Automatic annotation (TrEMBL):
Pfam family, one: MarR_2
Family annotation (SMART domains): HTH_MARR
This protein's name: MarR family transcriptional regulator
GO BP: response to stress
Signal peptide positions on this chain: none
Any one GO molecular-function label of the UniProt entry: DNA-binding transcription factor activity
Length: 160
C-alpha cells in the first residue's frame, strides 16, 4: 500500500501548475534522447542496455524478481527480453524446479554490456555536466522518494 506524503496545506502561490504527468514525460523524452544518441552506437537501445545491465548485475535471476527490481510489469519484461535472447546476449533456462526459469547474461551479453556502458557513462557525465551534479543527486533523491510514496503499481496495462 502506498504511503501518503506528509504535507501541510501549501499557499496558492506554491501550488503546482500544469500537468505533472506531461512535465515528467517531457523531461523523460529529453533525457532519453541524450542517452539514446550515445548508447545506440553499441547496437543497443537504452532500454535494452538497462535490462542487460540488470541481468548482468542480478543474474542468474528469476524473471519475476528481475521485473520487480526494475519496477516493470512481467509482461513488459518478457517482451523486452526477446530481442536480447534473439541476439544471444541473454539466455532463459530452467530454474530450481520445473515451473521456474532463470535469466542469465551470456559471455557475448557481458561483453556488449561493457561496450555499451562506456557510451552510457558518457551520456551520464554529459547530463551531470549540463544539469549540474548536485541537481542530478537531488533529482535522484526526489524520484526515489516519490517511487517509495507511490509504492508498487497495481496490475494494469503494460508499461513501456
Amino acid at each position: 500500500m502506498p504511503r501518503t506524503a506528509r504535507t501541510s496545506a501549501a499557499p496558492a502561490a506554491t501550488l503546482p501548475t500544469g500537468c505533472t504527468n506531461l512535465k515528467l514525460r517531457q523531461l523523460t523524452r529529453q533525457v532519453s534522447r541524450l542517452y539514446d544518441a550515445e548508447v545506440i552506437a553499441s547496437g543497443l537501445k537504452t532500454t535494452q542496455y538497462s535490462l542487460l545491465s540488470h541481468v548482468v548485475a542480478l543474474g542468474p535471476v528469476r524473471p519475476s524478481d528481475l521485473a520487480a527490481q526494475m519496477r516493470i510489469e512481467p509482461s513488459t519484461l518478457t517482451r523486452n527480453l526477446q530481442p536480447l535472447i534473439a541476439a544471444g546476449l541473454v539466455e532463459q533456462g530452467p530454474g530450481e524446479n520445473a515451473r521456474s526459469r532463470l535469466v542469465v547474461a551470456t559471455a557475448a551479453g557481458r561483453e556488449k554490456r561493457t561496450e555499451a556502458r562506456k557510451a552510457w557513462k558518457h551520456a551520464q557525465l554529459s547530463l551531470n555536466e549540463t544539469l549540474g551534479t548536485a541537481r542530478v543527486v537531488r533529482l535522484h533523491a526526489l524520484i526515489d522518494e516519490c517511487l517509495d510514496i507511490l509504492g508498487t503499481p497495481p496490475e494494469g496495462p503494460p508499461d513501456e
